[in-house]
Amino acid sequence: MEILQRKIIKEGKVLSNHVLKVDMFLNHQMDSKLMKQIGEEFAAQFNNQGITKVLTIESSGIRPGLMTALELGVPMIFARKRKSLTLTDGLITSTVYSFTKKESNEVTISKDFIGEGARVLIIDGFLARGQAALGLIDITKQAGAVPVGVGIVIEKSFQEGRNLVLETGVQLESLARISSLEDGKVQFVN
Amino acid sequence: MEILQRKIIKEGKVLSNHVLKVDMFLNHQMDSKLMKQIGEEFAAQFNNQGITKVLTIESSGIRPGLMTALELGVPMIFARKRKSLTLTDGLITSTVYSFTKKESNEVTISKDFIGEGARVLIIDGFLARGQAALGLIDITKQAGAVPVGVGIVIEKSFQEGRNLVLETGVQLESLARISSLEDGKVQFVN
User: What is the tens place of the pLDDT at every residue in A5-50?
Assistant: First the structure.
């Protein structure tokens, strides 16, 4: 997605060989127009696949997930990273390890919201080590639903997440694929 | 907002005299079309007030905040409840006590994103005891910006948040104002 790549080049900050900060337009401040375009792009890529639900995870997946659901005309549901006080029973849970935060989270959704046979599009802001995406695929399967695809805003293609997702056989579409952050410079996969 | 009230009556679950669960359409699963209408409604209510930025707080404020920012054509920024690993300096912080979770959170934004003189619309999903809204007003003022208004999706009008916000002199607009949850029944302020 050309416009997203330009935005990353212009406003992203490379903090290390592994960390790209996109707080200017994606992860703290939000360019609301760009977010709408991201939703349109995912909707176009997974159009005609009979998606009935968008599944994402708090918090960076919620904005692109919502815009995608809006474009597809389906509801969105987001997995929580810790149990809510008002969500007590009927949960589907997967354990997701965050390499960034060096901690495991219980990722949960309520059984009520993904029925058997639902066709689920999983959306997240970032794909690096792939643990969150795998957790969402796992939750979808536990619910008896079909993980039709995974849509990622920014993929760090030099980490293992892409291959781990592809190994599950689920279609993966990433809007920006970064091949390297070395020498403080963002390089994209051609 | 008529359509929101109908949705609350139809799909909300009263768990106690103080707790309304709206996981079906607002707080876990999202009715994406309703969320767009909520954004349009806030944009209409604060139109012509020269809003330059929408400020909200993770996580329930992010969806309505994003849709409002999109309608107003301005960026959105969300305050974080704990410090991010890549957000280390230049923070504006306010301490917010959550009566629901019985804990204090440091609520932070980066100084870079709300400049002096910015005209800020604060959006949140819920208003009950008012602590989050007061924290966001405080952050806005610390940034040298103007808190033009507070927009709330669901207000529990029987708790003190409304008065606490009004005492600050900031305009408050709530789309659904609940006067009582007693006897398992949702009543709205006329």
Answer: 999 999 999 999 999 999 999 989 999 999 999 999 999 999 999 9
> A90-143 pLDDT, tens per residue?
899 998 888 878 888 889 999 889 989 999 999 999 999 999 999 999 999 999
| Interface check A17 vs B, CB under 8 A | no
Cβ neighbours of B73 (radius 10 Å): 10
Give the three-class secondary structure for A127.
strand
**Which of B55, B70, B77, B108 has the highest number of chain A CBs within 10 A, making it the mutation to test binding with A?**
B70
> Which pLDDT band holds residue B177 (cuts at 50, 70, 90)?
very high
Cβ-based contacts of A110 with chain B (< 8 Å): 23, 28-29
The first and second tokens of residue B56, run together, are 């909200």
Q: Establish if B73 touches chain A: CB-CB under 8 angstroms.
A: yes
Contact between chains at A32 and B73 (C-beta distance less than 8 A) = yes
Determine, for residues A66 and B100 on separate chains, whether the beta-carbon distance falls below 8 Å: no
Return d(Cα A127, Cα A170) in angstroms, integer: 14
CA distances from A118 to A45, A52, A55, A134, B146 (A): 18, 6, 11, 18, 45
Hey, are the CB atoms on A33 and B70 less than 8 Å from each other?
Answer: yes
pTM of the model: 0.91
Specify whether the CB–CB gap between B148 and B118 falls below 8 A: no
Calpha distance A19→A13 (Å, rounded): 8
Whether complex ipTM tops 0.90: no
Per-residue pLDDT of B127-166, as tens digits, reads 999 999 999 999 999 999 999 999 999 999 999 999 999 9
Tell me the residues of chain B between 143 and 162 that have a Cβ less than 8 Å away from chain A.
Answer: none
For chain A, helix, strand, coil in percent to 5 are 35, 35, 30
